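Changelog note: in this version the structure field was regenerated for every chain. One regenerated record is shown below for reference.
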Amino acid sequence: MDIKRAFNLPICLCLIVEQEKLSHIMDNKKQSLIYLAAASHSGSTMLAMLLGAHPDLCSVGELKAGHLGDKNSYLCSCKSLLEECEFWRGVSEKMASRGQSFCIFDAGTDIRSNASPYVLFLLKPLVRRRSVEWMRDVLLNISPSWRKQLARLQRRNADYVRAVAEQAGADAVVDSSKTGIRLKYLLKNKDLDIKVVWLVRDGRGVSLAYKNPSEYADAKDPEFRGGGAEKTQEQGRNVAAGAHEWLRCNQETEAVLATMTEDKWLKVHYEDLCDNTESELNRIFEFIGVNPGKKRMDFKAVEHHVLGNGMRFDSSSLITLDDRWKTELTQVELNEFAQAAGGYNESVGYSSNERRL
């Protein structure tokens, strides 16, 4: 070995060591996740796509990836068959590189995936006050299968979020799964850095959407309703049932947020998002920690790979407030809503004096 090479060898070894240290740090760095918490039909699909249009963020809909329907007809929001979408093929490949066999039609990322009847029974109730949740966790931890299952789920979810971020070239991923029970356990995931956007909509508007999801909460074009399947899978409910569902979902979110520091969550009203879209987006992006100047108001012009609500197929980037409840709910239905959830509706910012036009 000549003198010059011998002199450079320690430098090369130092560089290799530093690169290995950097690689180890990057592998152990927490992945940023933005969780949208909301009741169904509160505008989460619209918000998820608005956020996903930002170049530093990616949204693919609900990461819990529930039942998507027939793989021979279900479409990605890019309007490719989901099974043939290059983006989702890339996600599967990146999961495989992490040792995870993955198919979006059987994602295995839901907190209830492969749970025993005992565990399913304990996971069924929505999140409540801390003392109740303490008891739930005690009873769950009695089960050895749950302890193993939770560890596997936490790793799988972290790998999935990282795979989506890598495939999209994004810093953070938006999860519009909405449910509080999923959020509760994701917050315990040591590999994820989570911020929550709590999206609240007037419960009367949500209750109207529950009555007829195809008419009030799906794609404008019937061809794309239910993800490209024949019809939406959700059945209509009366106003009282919709009001109760809206109430409990938001109460569940509040119960989870009570366990978090205030700098980790942000409350957003659907109506403000529709009426003052640009300023509300600026506020949300500042909270997330990305440059608001990179927002895209033409968010539907960006290619998305979102799953879920059929509204992801609507082509227009025009945002208008949907307040049809003011004209389409009867006085009897308004009274039913007021009895079921009127007080809570006021507590989250909506006047009970606003009646039908």
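Spot check on this record: Confidence is low (pLDDT under 50) at residues 12-17, 19-26, 229-233. Residues 32-347 form a domain with the Rossmann fold fold (CATH 3.40.50.300).
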